[in-house]
Every structure is written in structure tokens, then in C-alpha cells.
Design goal:
Main location (chain B): membrane
Structural class of chain A: alpha+beta
Radius of gyration of chain B: 20 Å
CATH class of the largest domain in chain A: Mainly Alpha
Strand order of the largest sheet of chain A: 3-26-25-24
CATH topology of the largest domain in chain A: ABC transporter involved in vitamin B12 uptake, BtuC
GO molecular function (chain B): transmembrane transporter activity
Number of domains of chain B: 1
Strand order of the largest sheet of chain B: 1-4
Strand content of chain A: 15-25%
CATH topology of chain B: ABC transporter involved in vitamin B12 uptake, BtuC
Order of helices and strands of chain B: HHHHHEEEHHHHEHHH
Structural class of chain B: mainly alpha
InterPro entries (chain B): ABC_transp_permease
Number of helices of chain A: 19
CATH architecture of chain B: Orthogonal Bundle
Distance between the termini of chain A: 65 Å
CATH architecture of the largest domain in chain A: Orthogonal Bundle
Largest interface: A-B, 57 and 53 residues
GO cellular component, one term (chain B): plasma membrane
Oligomer: heterodimer
Number of domains of chain A: 2
Strand content of chain B: under 5%
Helix content of chain B: 55-70%
Radius of gyration of chain A: 34 Å
Largest sheet of chain A: 4 strands, antiparallel
Keywords (chain B): Cell inner membrane, Cell membrane, Membrane, Transmembrane, Transmembrane helix, Transport
Chain lengths: ~700, ~325
Amino acid sequence: MRETLTRLRYRYWPDHLLGEILSKRWTETAIPVILLLIVGFALSRSLEHFLSPASLADTARQAGEIGFIGLGMALVVIVGGIDLSVGSIFALTDFCALYLLDVLNWPVPAVVVVTMIVGGLLGAVNGVLIGYLRLRAFITTLITLIIYRSAYDLLIQRYSNAIASAFPDIPSWDFIGGGTVLGIPSVALVYIVIAIFGHVFLTRLRPGWHITAIGGSRRSAYNSGIPVRRTIALCYVASGVLTSIGALFFAARLGTVGGDIGVGLEVIVLTATVLGGITLGGGKGSVVKSMVGVLIVLLVTNGLTAMNARGGVNRMALASILLVAAMVDIRWQKNRTRIISKVYVAPTYHALPPPPPTEIGKGGPFEQNDRLREVSLIGLGRIEAPEDVILDRNDVLYAGSRHGDIIRFFPPDYERMEVFAHIGGQPLGMAFDKQDNLYVCIGGMGLYRIKPDGTVEKATDETNRSLYSVNDDSRLRLADDLDITDDGLIFFSEATVRYEMDEWPVDGLEARGNGRIICYDTKTGATHTALRGLKFPNGVAVASDGQSILFAETFGCSIKRYWFAGSKKGDVEIVMDNLPGYPDNINLASDGNYWLALVGMRSPSLDLAWKMPGFRRRMAKRVPVDEWLFPNINTGCVVKFNEQGKILESFWDLKGLNHPMITSMREHRGYLYLGGIANNRIGRFKLDNADPDFVQYDKRWGKSS
Amino acid sequence: MKRVRISQQEIVFAVFAALFLSFSIFLNGFLSADNMLTLLQNVAVLGILGLAMAIVVIGRGIDLSLIAALAVPGGLVLQMVQNGHSLPASLLAAGLLAIAIGLVNGWLIAYAEVPPLFATLATGLFVAGLGQAALFQLDVVQWSDGMAGFERLGQGSILGIPTSIVMFAIACVVVFVLLRKTRWGAYIYAIGDNPFAARVTGIPSRPIIVLQYVVAALIGCFAGLVMAASVNSMPTRIFNSTLIYDVILVVVLGGIGLSGGRGGVVNVIIGTLLIGTMLNGMTILNIPYAGQNLIKGLVLLIAVITDTFLNPRNEETAQQGDI
């Protein structure tokens, strides 16, 4: 009963999503968004007219005006600076617009353009000083804040009466100030357009990336050739222009030049920026964060004003929000990786019946023997980590190495070796196609093709992304083994979509079906996912019927068959299950049966732990990684099985010295060649009663001259 | 050829000297003893605040809540006395409030690791709001009879020197001793110079940082009392003014780099003198307030630019997040 409940709970409850969601970048934006929703909800409950169209439109207008300044501030903060002068620039450009319109009676388009130019110039002063002369942003904008403010004070002393007495009646100006399109205020509309552009700019365009790069590390940006000075200067110009846009809407809406316009605006905008989660010091931030921050600040201040709170309460609320937001942001940034690493591992329920016996004297097909003791060794100490081995029709032996090379050994004694091709990632499964191209699965990279002359080409490194995946599963993380059908389809296994290659034991600990079988069509170059939800799929071999593949699920301890053609197309059926070990590569044998490597044998402790997901989760949370349970890979064997899933014989090495771990085996001209991903050698074993002329290439593609 | 390196401190001092000279030559009555005293008196409070800011800036921080620490505890004393409490009790309450401000600042910065700019911006806003919402009845807290005698902290003179200047001098001596003669002061320099190295060396950097902000808040509170005593009231709206920017300018122009670990009391005095001289000269010239600010800003800008040309920073050594 309890087992059933556990099984159902782990089958249907998506534990793994928490870690995947938390490791997404957008969760950082989610925190301010949630705060915004809470604030909005609280205000709509406590204020009667909060959600009325008039109130919302008014909020949208103010949000738009401050939003522009917020965008400018975001840009400057992301590039690693700060702009305290925005309040004064706001006041000056507000004055500029009203002066041009009311005193000089310029047409509206000219007013708009000139005001934006003035804003840009005021920002350019900051930009030149900070970007080119490399003054400190904080102190420089502090000084320009004072200068611009006093210039504004001097100007309004002279012109405020002229501006106050003018009542321009220009429809286009009124539209800027109070017009709506489909009920949306003009300012909000313009803001949305600019914000969308800003988002694309920051995330998709080269200058935006430069800005983030400079903020992240100014020195690295400089060393990699980014025009640091110019980019920084332009950010301040942009800040000035954006501020002037906000001022234009403000001027059109209110038309006043009071003495306190823009005073303290820099504090509000700065609060909004930090609240949105844009990190001071640069390198991190987005348009959405800026927008959310502005909205929160505005809602809180407006809400408190509407509730007739004293000015002081308003300030206290703003300050408290700023502090809490900053603290949450900082703690999260600091502990993010640690929290994620704790919750990312999400073990699931995986029950296996007791394994068949392997002990000597117990009988059965897995009974241990010592037949592999007498193997001869190839390339001892000269090769590292040959996960798979393969021979071409000229008897040349190929193997992968940990250094990212394909090494080949030449007959007859396999003493002479050379690097056949350098790829750069760990080569895993290999297969030859009819044209003698060697296809290789590269862990962490994908499927690659090596031509007979040794040139390396990428075959595929991505597949279709599944609809509900949180982790991007379009990239291939751990392509493992492959085989090629007569029609040129390459079926290859991807062991896991949740972990990197070096973390494969963790995937075993999780025991979830994270892996998949992917199909690459050599004719069209298209890739698609054929099967998903497999427990560490590993070896793949095309069955002798030519319509199905056999594949091993390492942590499922089973061999399955998948029909890709014929009447049963799309079906999956179990060939063998409850193996005593963890199956790895599958290859053809000369007598029409199949070879299978068991990379390690099951142990009672991991079998038990697999039935106890809670235990494994606690282990992952509380115990350091190197103390975790680890699948046994110290002893393994090679077995031969037939089409019906019956084990015919097994080969063991009781001494355990020559091949502590076997991940692959390949039969060739009466010999069996053994590879192991932890070994520094390739084994060669003389088979009795084997066809001395068997060559896998000939068997698959026919004998050629 | 040996390259002559001129520090910002020397540049500012040269600017100050040039200004002082030209004012003495071209302005009638500038060099009189009376005017000199007025000059100093006007900037005494700014100077005291500069000392508080200097301690924090040397420790690689910044304290934007200083003005709140000046206005609110100072105002609290006046308000409490007005409400009938005794002067010592009121002073004690103000001192405790200042310590509380400092502790909160310090905790946020040292333990919660909030950047000082934000922590103090927010606490300043909070404290100002607290005063506005809960403590004061009016924006300007008036002098009351219970305060009798206390005005001598800011008015009158001791041995012919106006009291506020004496107070600035006392504050200078205290801060000088703290920074240069105590181990605690040496730790502040170490932390400002390289916080990580200081921590590795075994300096209890977090408690030191907290202490830094507590002392700054206390000095700010002292400046507030001097100010209240000299004008016989506490205009709490001072928080809305640009005074905090003036304080930062005093410190930075005096030559205390915002990246910490450099400078001392002398730099604060130089910075204060420069600002004082400028303000005084312009007042004599009868330039309006806004114009004074404009000129002040331009002079400061020129000083900072000159410094950058003489002591350029480069991308290789500029610190991360060095704003």
C-alpha cells in the first residue's frame, strides 16, 4: 500500500521541475513580479477606486513618465555606472519643451525633436566625462545634478511667469499629454513600444550585449576589443534622451515649471531600479525588471497618498521596500547556486525485482567464469578512456580517447598507433556507414562524422525541443551510442537531458527517465526525438530484421526493442529486463546474435535505495557529493543474447585486473575487442567457434571489392 | 625623467589657494578677520558632517543617511524638551536614536551585505519619514525654554573664536585620534584598502564596519545639535535639500577617494575650506543662491577633471563596480 502510494507520488508529481525552474534566469524577475502582484492586490482591496479606468489611466501616465527615466537608469546601471542627474535633466528638459512651445511658439514636432536633442546633450556631458575622461560616475553625476539644477533654477526665475501665463491650445500637444488610443494613454503606448525595442536591444542585438559585457567585467570587455568608452558614453546619452522623453510627456500633461520638479526623482528611480532586481555594479538587468520596479514604487506611493497617509509614512514604506528588496536580491544572488544544487537532484521511485544469481555454483546464464582472464592488451598506457572500439574492413582498430581524439591502431599487431582525428570532446559510441564515414557520438557535443580522410564534420547537435520542457532539451547533452539503418537513419541514444556527462552517476541516483532516443536522417539532415523518458539509454544496435533497433537502458537494467518501420512501427517492447548489471553497448555477433556489455553489476544497496526516493533526496541535500551512493562499476562482464532475449553465454574476468570495467565490445575476424571508459587499454580476446572471417562492415553493408 | 605626480588633495588645495588669493585681492572686506570667522562659522556644520562621512568613506562605504541623522535626533531633542521632558533625558533619547540608526546601517551593510549606497539611502528615507510621520508636529521644530543654555553649543564664542568653529575643531581632533591613534582606526583603513585582505588577516571587519556607521551617525547627531543651537531651531526639511551632496563633495574633493583606504582629517579640512571660501566669496559678490550652486558645481567639475588628467585611471586597475 505504502509502496503504491510512493510509486504514484513519484510517478505523477514533477519533483524535478523545481530545480529546473530555479536554475532559469527568469526566476530572478519573478520575485519582483510577485511583489508587484501582492502590492496591486493589497491596494485593490483597500482602495475603492484603485481599479477604476480613470485611476488606472492616471497611474499608467505617471508610470510611463517615470518608466522612461527608469529605462535610462537601467541602461546606465547595467553598464556599471549610475546617473544621479536624471532629476535635474528631467527638470531642464521639461523647461526646454515649455519654453520652446510657450515662449518661442515653435511647432510641436520641432519642440519634441529639440527637447530630445537637449536631453541627449545633457546626457552626453555625463557620457563624455564618465566614458571618455573616465571620471567616477557617482561623483560626476552628482556634480552635474547640482549644475543642471541650478541652471534650471536660474532659468525659471526668468521665464516661469511667461510659461505660466501661456495656454497653448494645440491638439497634438494635448494628445501627447492626455490622449488615448483605444483607452490606453499615449505615454503608455510609446513606453511599451520603446520597452519592447529596449528588450530586443539588450537581449538580441550586439550593442546590448556589449553593454552587459562591460557591466559584467569592464576589464574583460576592454581586453576583448569592445569599445568600452564609446559604449559607456552612449549609455549616458541614451539616459538623457529617455529622461527628456519622460519630461516631454510630463510637460504636455501638466505644463508647469515649478521649483520642485524632478527633486528627489533620482531616488525614486534608483529605488525602482534596485527593486526590479537590476544589480548595482552592472552586468545584470532587463527592461522587464525596470518596468516592474517602477510600477511597484509608483503603486505604493500613489496608494499611500490615496489613503491620506502622511508624507513620512510614504517615505518609510518606500525605504522599507527598498531595503527588503535589496536584501532578498543579495541573499538570493549569493546563495543561488547552493540552493539550486540542493534542490536540483530529484530522485524518483525505481523498483527492480531481485536480480538473477551470478555466483559460481548457482547456475544460470550469468554464472561467473574466468574466460576473460587471458586477454591480450592493445595500447596499454597509450590510450585513455576508449568507451567504444570499432574496426573497419581493413582491420584497422579505432577507439576514442579522453583527450578528444579518435585514435587508430594498425594491424597486424596493433602496436603502431596514430591520431586519426581530433574532435575536442569525449568520443563515445561509433559506427561506420556504407561510405566508410565514421559516425561518432561525442559527449556534450552531439553526433559527428569523420570522413575516411580524417576531416571532422558536425552531423547534428540539436533536436526538436519538447513542448513542456523547462530545461532546454533541444541541445544534446550526452549523446552516447548509435547505429545506422539500411535507409541511412542514424538512431542514437542521449543518456540524460538533465545532467552533464561528468554527472552521469547523479542521473543514476535520480533513476528518472531523463534519456531519449534520437533519430538523425543522413539524407535530409533532419533530427527528431524518437523516444523519450528512458532511464539512461545507452547501447543501440539495429536488429537483424532491419525494421527495429535494440537499445539498452543502463539504469533500467533492461534491453528494449523499438520498431522504426514495418507493421509495428512506433512500438516499444521489452527484450530483456531485470538484468543483474547495468547494460551498456550492444553489437552484432558473427552467429547472428548480439553482444552486450554489462558495465557494472547491481548491488543490493543501490537497489534498495532506488525504492526509497526520500532517502536519496535527503542524501543529496545533506551529504557532500563524494559521499553519495555510486552505482557499482568495478566488475562487469560481456554476455551474448539472441533475438528472443535469451542469454546464451557470459564472459567474466575474475581477476579483475585486465578489464575492471567493460563498456563496449566488437567482434572481428574471430576476436572480441573490448573497450572500457575507465580503462587505459583495449582488450583482445580470441573467441572459440567464431567465424574467422566476420567483419561487421561486410555484415552490415555487404562485401565490397 | 621623473614624472611629477600631483594628488587631488594638492590640486584642490591649489584651487583653494588661488580662489583665496584672488578673493583677497579683488574683494573688499574678504580678508578681514571678521569675514574669516564668518566663513568658517558657515561651514562648521558642513565640516563636522564631512568628518562623519570621511570615516565611512575611508572604510569603503558611503552614508547617505547622515542628513537624517543630523535632522531627526536633533529635532527629537527640541521636540521632547518642548513636550516637557528634561534636557538630559532628551539628549539621551537622541543619542540612542543616532546609535540605532548607525546599528541598522551597519548591520545592513556588514551582515546583510546590502551595498552601502542603498542601505543608507533607504535608512535615511526611513528615518526622515519616521520623524515626519511620528516625531515632529511641525517641519521646523522650535526652540523652547527648557533648552536654555544649550544654545551656547552653537552661538557665542570661546576665547574669541566662534563656538561652532571650536566644535568643528573638537570634532576634528576626536576623529583624528580615532583614525590615526587607535587600532580601530587602523582597521578602518585596512578594510577600506582591501576588505578581503583585511578579513583574511583576521580583522573583525563586520563589527568594525558596524562601529563605523554608529560613529558616523553620532557625529551627524552632534552636527545637528550644533546646528540647532546656532539657529535656535531645527528645520527638519533640511533632509530634502542637497546638503548630503555638499558633504560628499567636501570629502571627495578633499582627496578621500570613494574607493576607500585613503585620506584623513586634513582632507576634510581642505575640502571644507574650499567650499567655504567659494560660498563666502560669492556671497560677498552678491550672487544669487542658484548662481552660487552653478559656479560651485562648475568649479568642482573642473577640479575632478583636472585630477583625472593628472592621475588617470585605466581599465586594467579599475575596480569592479567602481562607481
